[in-house]
Amino acid sequence: MSTGKRLVDGYDLVIFDLDGVVYLIDRPIPGAVEAVAELHRGGTPLAYATNNASRRSGEVADLLTALGVPATADEVLTSAGAAAAVLAQRLSPGDRVLVVGAEALRAEVREAGLTPVSAAGEAPVAVVQGYGPEVGWADLAEACVAVRGGALWVATNTDRTLPSPRGPLPGNGSLVAALRTALGREPDVVVGKPEPELFATAARLVGARRPLVVGDRLDTDIEGAVRAGMDSLLVLTGVSGAADLLAAPESRRPTFVAADLSGLFEVDEAVRVPPVAVDGWQLDGDGLSGSGAVLDALRLLCAATWAGAKVRPTSSAARDAFHTLGL
User: Gene3D superfamilies from the xrefs (predicted)?
Assistant: First the structure.
């Protein structure tokens, strides 16, 4: 039911994904700095939950601050930190862990009281695998030997891709897939989204009872929110686009959709998906006609497509909307 208030006013915590939502690699996404500033002015608690295991929480907070988004390390939850915590719970202090990933993951393992190593010959009892731009065949080979020898295999996340200015590039999930193929089995533990723990931890830390997850990926952010029992906002500034949204199974459908973070300040029913009603657009059988906001057309298409219809444009404005949405 619509509250008639801004979307954000219905929640006591906003949990942001980072890449594709707040920034793209090292640049803020247009409107993100202003949106976060508006949330700060309104006193809305914020958290940042990222599957990226190549930076530590403090480094992420410093990056955000440098981009004009003031943040503290305790507001940032990374899959690297979460993976190290899982290992610390399962292993004994000082146990050796073969680290496949960036230096940030190695540092998290060390801070958790464990001993990071680089080779299977050093007798690791576990392998932790996270994204790192320098990860290569030799690293995967050492991990393969260690896991075959009985080491616990923990993946920070299984994101198939990560966003970049040149489009999606291979993510940690692609590297996990290479090792999965070689080993013929799945990791023992996957820590990051779509597993719900990052979101649940963020809510616990501030005592939030009604958090909102904001992400750009249906297969991690939105599915993770669904698994955690939280509402979610999909922003179309990163990986998942309109076609992905229309094809999404129920487990990956957001509560709201917006072009960018400005959607946080829209009236809740103006970004809810599927919509109760929209102005200007009409569905007549399998045809979309009329005219209006492109995002309203997308929300109406979700209602029809998720109900099993295959919709085609039947007005010039509808054809333009399909083209804009890449449909």
Answer: HAD superfamily/HAD-like
